[in-house]
């Protein structure tokens, strides 16, 4: 099994430790990981802004970089969902379609493909889990509370294997943080209010850290925490699962 590691641009530029932890965790689990150095943005911001018709360059570059791997894994649910649902090229439509079926968000890959059951990580802290909207409703990483269906959470399943970690309860564990990509730009006031509500839930239950499978949501909440001078920190779930 050879995995191509897809690191989104905002992780590369602002949160490189999340990408490094993803690489280290996968290699610890015996996966052969390769990082295509020619990769760049997947094109999601452009598509979300209504310019999907100008995205062919990004799409073709993604196919060129990742087309030959057995799996593509990324520490970003929103970017993975974009690739799963929208990747296409005029020149290589079959290759693009194949990639859409073998790209995985990290948590999804660990649970559904590697079926990890005995992580050796240790993280003796109180942790709040943020389950992102696209992770729940797009990638089905956890159950949606609006459905009358049995509960499950793949991130929770992995965090329960971490020694010393206390996963705190939340009043609304699947509530949106308000980031929403370009939503936080065009609806700034609404986005900030939603973020404050999401952060308050974690703070009221005495979280020391907030984690999740997408740094974009965590970045949004981190900004609010810093403006409130809160000691609570955010960490990508890969950094906790890789902790020793």
What does this structure look like?
Helix 12 (215-227) links the parallel strand 7 and strand 8 (233-236). This protein folds into 2 domains: 2-113, no CATH class; 126-241, 3-Layer(aba) Sandwich (Rossmann fold), CATH 3.40.50. Helix content is 45%, strand content 11%. It is built from 13 helices and 8 strands.
Based on the model shown, name its key terms.
single chain, 4-stranded parallel sheet, alpha/beta, globular, Rossmann fold, 13 helices, 2 domains, 244 residues
Summarize the structure.
The chain has 244 residues and is α/β, with parallel strands linked by helices.
Protein topology:
Elements: E1 2-5, H1 9-14, H2 16-28, E2 32-34, H3 44-48, H4 56-66, E3 71-74, H5 77-86, H6 93-100, E4 103-105, H7 106-113, E5 126-129, H8 133-137, H9 154-159, E6 166-167, H10 183-186, H11 188-204, E7 209-212, H12 215-227, E8 233-236, H13 237-241
Parallel strand pairs: 1-2, 1-3, 3-4, 5-6, 5-7, 7-8
């Amino acid at each position: 099994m050879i995995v191509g590691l897809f690191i989104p641009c905002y992780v590369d530029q602002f949160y490189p430790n999340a990408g490094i932890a993803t690489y280290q965790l996968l290699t610890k689990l015996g996966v052969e990981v390769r990082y295509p150095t020619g990769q760049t943005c997947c094109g999601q911001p452009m598509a979300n802004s209504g310019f999907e018709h100008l995205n062919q360059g990004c799409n073709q570059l993604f196919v060129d970089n990742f087309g030959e791997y057995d799996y593509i894994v990324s520490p970003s649910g929103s970017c993975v969902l974009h690739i799963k649902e929208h990747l296409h090229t005029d020149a290589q439509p079959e290759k693009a379609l194949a990639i859409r079926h073998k790209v995985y968000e990290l948590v999804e890959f660990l649970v559904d493909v590697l079926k990890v059951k005995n992580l050796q990580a240790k993280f003796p802290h109180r942790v709040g889990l943020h389950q992102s909207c696209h992770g729940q409703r797009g990638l089905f990483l956890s159950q949606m509370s609006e459905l009358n269906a049995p509960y499950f959470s793949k991130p929770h399943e992995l965090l329960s294997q971490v020694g010393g970690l206390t996963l705190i309860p939340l009043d609304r564990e699947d509530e949106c943080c308000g980031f929403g990509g370009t939503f936080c730009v065009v609806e700034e006031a609404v986005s900030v209010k939603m973020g404050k509500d999401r952060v308050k839930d974690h703070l009221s239950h005495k979280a020391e850290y907030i984690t999740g499978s997408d740094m974009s949501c965590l970045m949004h909440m981190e900004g609010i925490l810093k403006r409130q001078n809160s000691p609570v920190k955010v960490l990508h779930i890969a950094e906790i699962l890789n902790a020793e």
